[in-house]
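Changelog note: in this version the structure field was regenerated for every chain. One regenerated record is shown below for reference.
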Amino acid sequence: MEFKRSPLFRGIPPEGISACLQCSDSKTTTYQKGEILFHTGDTPQYLFLLLEGCIAICRDSSGGERTMINVFQQSGQLFGEVFLFLQDQPYPCYGVAEQTSKVMEIPKMFFYKPCGKTCDYHTRLIQNTLSLLASKAYFLNQKVRLLSFPTLRQKIIAYLLQQEQANQMITLPMNREQLAGYLGVTRPSLSRELMKMQKESLIKIEGRTVTILQPEQLQQFL
């Protein structure tokens, strides 16, 4: 299965993965579109591993406006790991299925106790978890930097440069609505600014593919 390629299981053979999952009492749950995985204020109980579908992590303002913190749509992606290891810290956000999704849920206590004969694999899994936590900390630092820019154009440019691939081409992992939520702006505002940037020949947009036409000029906005 694709999830076995997840960084969580790096260096663990298939038989070790099966042993760890069985020992941990992990379960697989299917969520329908719009169904909540966990609510704001819930106590974290599981490390979540996406098997298929799309999960959004969101926060609502007092006025009911939704801000999308992150979105997961690749098999094998982990989420919820940061909150899982914070002492007595409830979720400050909620997780919702953007489409029918299948999620593996690994109990928190599996990461706090030895598991007998699979101990070597268990240890490796915990080491992988620590590495992923470090990567998440880096990701969050990058997002804080992105959101600290005062203008929408700067936020867009910073995001595009973070995502940049070969030949200045970017395949966006989110649709317009999701990206607007991630940047903390409205979708119309995001679309207008993207169109302005395209008219100024700074970028070229084709569906979810964005090509940076003038990388040096974009850098000057930051």
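Spot check on this record: The helical segments are 14-24, 81-84, 119-147, 152-163, 176-183, 187-199, 215-220. The longest helix spans residues 119-147.
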